[in-house]
Amino acid sequence: MVSIPRGFRDFPPPLMILRKRILSKIEGVFKRYGFDPFETPALEYWETVRGKLGEEAESRLMFIFPDFLSKEWYALRYELTFPLARYVAMHPETPLPFKRYHIGRVWRHEEPQKGRYREFWQCDADTVGSPHPEADAEVISLNIDVMREFGFEGFTVKINDRRLLTGIFEEELGISDPIPVYRSIDKLDKVGEEGVRADLLSKGMHEGLVDRIMEVILKRGRFHELGSELSLSGNERISQALAHLEEIFSIVNDERLLFDLSLVRGLEYYTGPVFETVVSKPRIGSLAGGGRYDRLIGLYSGRDVPATGVSIGVERLIDAGLELGIFKLDEKSYVQVFVVSVRRDSWRYAWKVAGELREGGFNVSVDLMRRSQSNQREYARKLGAKVIAFVGPQEEGSGTVTLYSDGRRETVNLKGAVEAVRRLLSQSGS
Amino acid sequence: MVSIPRGFRDFPPPLMILRKRILSKIEGVFKRYGFDPFETPALEYWETVRGKLGEEAESRLMFIFPDFLSKEWYALRYELTFPLARYVAMHPETPLPFKRYHIGRVWRHEEPQKGRYREFWQCDADTVGSPHPEADAEVISLNIDVMREFGFEGFTVKINDRRLLTGIFEEELGISDPIPVYRSIDKLDKVGEEGVRADLLSKGMHEGLVDRIMEVILKRGRFHELGSELSLSGNERISQALAHLEEIFSIVNDERLLFDLSLVRGLEYYTGPVFETVVSKPRIGSLAGGGRYDRLIGLYSGRDVPATGVSIGVERLIDAGLELGIFKLDEKSYVQVFVVSVRRDSWRYAWKVAGELREGGFNVSVDLMRRSQSNQREYARKLGAKVIAFVGPQEEGSGTVTLYSDGRRETVNLKGAVEAVRRLLSQSGS
Asked: Are B312 and B123 contacting, i.e. CB atoms less than 8 angstroms apart?
């Protein structure tokens, strides 16, 4: 039987119309913050990706395949940050800061489940070139504006800094391989405090160390209540991170921005602040996230260029918005006017009426099936067309069109039809 | 060295801004004709594609690769029509006619050259469900409107019908395998009349037959001068095709629509009218094309559903428009206002000014590099920002901002800044 690949989706018009509305709003915020559009190939050479995204992505989750003519191997785009880094490395002439947004699909060979697909869209905004906290603060403010734009309430942006994790766990607590510790504390939201403690103990750590780790990661909340406590150690990485975070907090100046030492984030290329945006309900994980990666471009070019950015997880945002009733699948079609041919021999005049209304800028359909009047109306109703334009011998004889909308009917001259349709559409609120 | 896969492209902001402008115009025409948005996966199962697109596509031009976990094989999307057919076959509940547009990328393992890429975008509009010439005429009219929308002059839409080719070459001329003949006549524009003749002779055809073939394919021009001549044979397929074309000509009623018996088109799934849009200059091949495929959906579902559509080749359209000067790469950035911090300590007020202007709906950038005033201005000039907003201790003290545009400078209250910027932008024509 014919089928669609597992974990992949078709988007029929009602879903696409909603998605385009949402993506266009996100794009509007990106543009207002001064980011410009950018696109890269769906495929990259596997050589370009290797060693950039970490063990799990590269060994298990990427679609990798050989070219059948050359000896090259390709990888389907796993995310949108490393192609940006590859581009900047190949184009050192790019004026800095380079502020680009990229809305595009990525592919991950996950086990499909609710809300998890093998093909999905990401919306990224990144600033390349600035090492300063202003650049981080800007993408965080942008992220908050995206959430506000959609009317999400009760969201928070959790922020941490990779240098704090290193400074505390490696340097202060002397843990030589902290990756398993990060994996454990990353689960705090899912398994709770006792879960993390049990996890750490099961990895063979002694109870004293686990106590100290737990004490550190539970330092959540407002930054200023915690910063001074942490800065006591005098560790250089910790001081750098705290100074950087201090400036971000001062610029963003939003109480939804919360310091959280248990925030880790998966990708390996982060070097400074990292953040994630979560909603209190539904329980769906993070809707956006990002951070600073000052060494990724250098992996390509040998010359580090500082960079920071945010990625909006539009699939989860849509799922959460639908569940909260913020988004509705209420628009089935863009068609605003359906021109009904009352009799078969009216079709040529119907075509003319449709042409006039299209010239006026409206989205118009005519009968293509040679259906009866009632079947044309039924189809127009299914599309959700706000205005039905009836065209019969009478209208053709008098050069008019009969418009029907919201239970009212009026006959207007063809010349006045554009104006009349505009009025009817504005009355019906579309 | 780091590189981008051969035949693939990055699109930096100036190219993306032009592409988005062009795609949005095409989308506007699609919508006005009553088509709705639609999207399908980048990958399809190879089983789904096999036997649908013809020998050349399937044996040589598709990216095909195995899943590394399951035993499935994938194919990167080669074009946008067969995924539509696959969707309709899987969703027999879809109300007909189903009029969808699809703007998306496709992949072909071509040898890269000027104007030919391994990854490119197509813009398709198709109507599923109607067997009538109205549906063909609608996508042809839409195609003509797209060309008019961009100001292309001197274009023609060549039209033919697969049933005419079959009726004439197989039934009238008794050629049992006409495919090599089609291949030869398809080259008419490239190699000329003598070239086609030589090509046919080299395939071992006798001179009398070649004379008759040449006589047939040179019947180009206005339909009505040729139709009556062809209809004399009484061959049923020929009669069906002529009646169908007759109606299309009558509805479209545009002298740029020209009957051309040498038009073949490559894809194998066409069953009725086929058409192609060409410009007289530059010599770039066809910019759009399409036709009727009444049996493709049946290959998936076992039940034929008539369908017809058009595909706009947006890469060639862009290349042709750039060469003709219709399109220009004149917009480097969406940024409309750049806020210059006159002194380092003005940055917090600059941030506030930027926020106000963003609330007003403008695209605004601020300094993220802690640059000098002159370096900020130089960067703003590179972006092409129409308005520069200067912010220094004087502005901060008085709650104002100094706007600079087109050689003029004025200081306004922060509250009036949105209105002032709107006025300056409308004066500078953006």
From this structure: yes
Helix axes of B347-359 and B417-427: crossing angle, nearest 10 degrees: 70
**Domain boundary at B303, B324, B345, which?**
B324
Residues A172 and A149 in one domain: no
Decide if B88 is inside a domain: yes
- Counting Cβ atoms within 10 Å, is residue A257 exposed (0-12), middle (13-18) or buried (19+)? buried
Band (A51; pLDDT cuts 50, 70, 90): confident
- Identify the closest residue of chain A to B332 by CA–CA distance: A36
Interface membership of B381 toward A (CB under 8 Å): no
d(CA B266, CA B273): 13
Based on its alpha-carbon atoms, the radius of gyration of chain B, rounded to whole angstroms, reads: 28
Q: Are residues A96 and A50 in the same domain?
A: yes
Neighbours of B393 (CB within 10 A): 12
**Cα gap B122→B107, rounded to integer Å:** 10
Does the complex come out with an ipTM higher than 0.90?
yes
- Mean pLDDT, residues A318-345 taken together: 93
> Is A10–B87 a contact, with Cβ atoms under 8 angstroms apart?
yes
Q: Do the Cβ atoms of B33 and A364 come closer than 8 Å?
A: yes
The residues near B382 (Cβ < 8 Å, ≥ 6 apart) are A95, B332
Residues of chain A with C-beta less than 8 angstroms from the C-beta of B379: 95
Q: Does residue B57 sit in the same domain as residue B164?
A: yes
CATH of the domain at A294: 3.30.930.10
CA A35 to chain centre: 15
Q: What is the DSSP letter of B40?
A: -
Say if residues A236 and A248 touch (Cβ distance below 8 Å): no
DSSP 8-state class, residue B244: H
**In A232-305, where does DSSP find H-type helix?**
236-252, 296-301
Q: Find the domain containing B181 and state its range.
A: 13-324
B234 CB neighbour count, 10 Å cutoff = 7
| pTM for the structure as a whole | 0.94
Please list every residue in chain B whose beta carbon sits closer than 8 Å to the beta carbon of residue A9: 41
Preceding omega of A97 cis (within 30 degrees of 0): yes
Q: How many CA atoms lie within 13 A of B255 on its CB side?
A: 2
Which of B 48-77 lie inside 8 A of A, CB atoms? 48, 64-66, 68-70, 72, 74, 76
Q: Which of B222, B238, B218 is nearest to B230 (CA)?
A: B238
> Is there a single domain that holds both residue A373 and residue A411?
yes
Domain assignment present for residue A271? The answer is: no
Name the average pLDDT for chain B: 92
- Which residue would you say has higher pLDDT here, A330 or B221? A330
Dist CA B377 CA B366 (whole Å): 11
At A267, the pLDDT band (50, 70, 90 cuts) reads low
Handedness of CA B94, B96, B101, B104 (dihedral sign): positive
Final residue in a domain of this structure, among B324, B357, B376:
B324
Q: Measured between CB atoms, does B94 come within 8 Å of chain A? A: yes
Half-sphere exposure of A166 (CA within 13 A, CB side): 15
Residue with tokens 């489940």, as numbered in its chain: A113
Examine the domain organization and report whether B207 and B277 are in the same domain.
yes
Structure tokens that stand for B429 in this block: 């024509």
pLDDT digits (tens, 9 = 90+) for B55-111: 888 888 999 999 988 889 999 999 999 999 999 999 999 999 999 999 999 999 999
Residue A303 contacts B where some CB pair is shorter than 8 Å: no
CB proximity B95 to A under 8 Å: yes
Query: Distance (Å, rounded) from C-alpha A11 to C-alpha A314?
Result: 14
Considering the domain architecture, whether residues A37 and A139 belong to the same structural domain is answered as yes
Cα distances from B171 to residues B180, B235, B262, in angstroms, run 16, 8, 17
In this predicted structure, what is the pLDDT of residue B231? Answer: 67
Residue carrying structure tokens 């796993």: A78
